[in-house]
Amino acid sequence: MRFRRHSQVEAEVPNSSMSDIAFLLLIFFMVTTAFAARKGIDFRLPAPAKDEEEIDQKELKAVTIQVQASGRIVIDGIPKNLNEIQPYLRPILAANPKKFVIIQMDMDASYGNMMDVLDELKQAEVQNIALPSKQEISSW
User: Fold this and answer.
1) Which of 6, 61, 115, 119, CA to CA, is 20 to 30 A from 45?
2) Exposed / middle / buried, residue 49 (Cβ in 10 Å: 0-12, 13-18, 19+)
3) In what helix (H) or strand (E) does residue 126 lie, and over which residues does it extend?
């Protein structure tokens, strides 16, 4: 007895409902996505100045420490030794703890001198230290 072979069944992926699935996924993601509204820039306008409150110009100026190539340290135009930095800064920081200290390094000064000054400032608990670039210094 001979059996006849019927035509071979080809493997195919049913894609008749693919568009329905894609449409449902699109709707799902659109519904579950939280749309973020664009916010503007948050800022506060300064409070109006009071006449009785005068700001001392000395309070606004930052303390400037210059480290020269020879290792000499000049603070606000006054030559000082390394161990004199903390006693000089303590009363200034007591009056204004957020006072800025600017360190100006000479190009030929050693890196160790700058680290010694930074260590002294850390021990004096200086909060705001600035190390300006050459371009910033030339613009002053």
Assistant:
1) 61
2) exposed
3) none
Which of 100, 107, 102, 108 lies closest to 131, judged by CA?
A: 102
Assign residue 117 the CATH number of its domain.
3.30.420.270
Three-state SS for 24-93 is HHHHHHHHHCCCCCCCCCCCCCCCCCCCCCCCCHHHHCCEEEEECCCCCEEECCEEECHHHHHHHHHHHH
Q: Which pTM does this prediction carry?
A: 0.54
Q: In which domain, by residue range, is 95 found?
A: 61-139
Indicate whether 17 belongs to any domain: no
Q: Which residue has the tokens 């001979």?
A: 2
The residues, any chain, with a CB within 8 Å of residue 98's CB and separated by 6 or more, are: 127, 128
CA distance 53 to 99: 19
Task: Report d(CA 93, CA 88) in Å as an integer.
Answer: 9
Task: List the single range of 50-54, 64-68, 111-115, 132-136 with lowest mean pLDDT.
Answer: 50-54
